[in-house]
Structure prediction request, 300 residues.
Amino acid sequence: MKKRWLAVVILAVLATVLYVGASESRKEEEVKMTAMYLILGEDHFLFVDTKTDTPFYAPIPEELLDENREEMEEEELENGDILEIYGNGIMLESYPGQYPGVTKMQRVGKGEEAQIQEYEKMLEPLNAETDETELPSLSITYRTEDAIVTSITTEGSYSFEVEQEEGTVVQEEGTSPPVLYITDLIECAIPEDTEIELMFSRTPESLQVTRYPLELREERMESQAESETGNPSGNDLETENSERKMSEELPEGEDVAVEVAEEDGEETIAIGSKPGYVYRIQAEFENGSMEYGFMNTAEE
Prediction:
């Protein structure tokens, strides 16, 4: 089974040149870097630039060669292999980075055990297994002309039954305004008619996705800002009453179709995008429910 790259939070979608000092006359495919191949879990992998010690993802190209410059298969790559990577020299700024313009890779050796262990330790936060006692998270992934972008979503209210070590079950709840009105709502710029994949850390049993025009949010935020001037002390009771009022006044939104597909034994959940809307995702899990959201501020 081919390994997949590990999708994580994209901080920005900007292009940066790997080596600023590279000659302009050099052909893009001749830009070379050296990196270590590292396996994460059962079916993920990343590279680490051995010059800068920075992790990044790059797809395995068709032209994959061994130490003798003979063709080899991706499955033959081993943890800690050192490869020379050729491409257009453009790294998409994210964490980990993304290098989609790779044209050729050649294995040139094996990293030292101490270096392998150092990089594995560095990548541990990216290889953490899902903790069933933690709240399920949701990230979204979509394609643009230049990159595959992954972003976190804003987490809203939740209610879960959690089993303690001694076997007792407790109810854990968190309240917040509906995501439509959350101040620091995650902002994305997703082109129209782009498929958005919903990636949960735990698979939900059911989903409801609703979207609201950004104008509704802007009007409410302006109104909320005016009301806060009348509550300069930040009185908790007044704030709680305000949040409850916003929840009661939540307008009717537009239902968004959710498409669930299965490929190679893996389930994918996707929705369509439309600029100028706030997306509210309500997910039901085996032991509770949670709300997530983001807004699409791309130009129409």
Remarks:
- Residues 5-29, 235-239 have pLDDT under 50 and may be disordered.
- The chain has two domains: 4-127, 138-296.
